[in-house]
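User: Sequence in, structure out. Go.
Assistant: Echoing your sequence, followed by the structure tokens.
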Amino acid sequence: MYKYKLILLLILFVSGLYAQNSGYMGKKMIAGYGFHMSPGYFGTQGENIINKIHEGYVEYATSKRFVLGAATRFYKTIYANQRNVSIFSIYGNYVPTQVNSNPQGYYNMKGTNYLLYGKLFKSGYVAPWGRYFMFGATLNTFQANYDPSIMKVLVREEAYGTFGTAKEYYYSNFGLTHQSFVKFDLLIGFGRTRMITDRVVLDYGFNANAIALARVLFDVISDLDRTSEEGLAPYDYVAKTSASRVRALNRFNVFLRIGFLLF
């Protein structure tokens, strides 16, 4: 009887040790895949009404309530040229013309985000299991490229007096056809992890880019007000509209992640 009590006490003691330490059954490292999505309200066309981001990540439980993680996110999208461009032209004997219109067509974008973050788990849970608050930093890199035969603006110039005829042509010079950009933002979010098996971790919740979230009103007004706004200069068009589109992609997302406990 004494031996049985001793064994029971030993089991309880070991269980207590595991309960106080980080990790699940002694395993602290997780690697997995995540899928993020949000409504594509602004700057999109029909095939992109849902923003989709794919992610690969690794995490390590450094203490009972804290997990350190790193992730890379990938996406492809378009911008449907909802902002106006302002073109001032004068040619020979033609009347100077001010064009303030959104370009035809669209341009393509792809991006890669690099994230370093932490997860602070709620009291009563042991990392990496339970409810948590996420915070960190993200470096958002993206490229934009357009086809001048698709993305263009019609310009019509009237001739002076009664001589000559009106002149029409398409303007399609928006700077380099391939442009690259880098933006910094802050990551915040809330989520919950569940252990499906001894190895599989289900992680779900929502996250946001704080700076992009703070600029939501500015971006919404810029995209919706197409009649009274002053158009962007052609050489600024891709830089400014692509940054707005990237903010819309990363501003707020719900996510589902599947991870595997490695060791």
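User: And one key feature?
Assistant: DSSP finds four helices and twelve strands in the chain.
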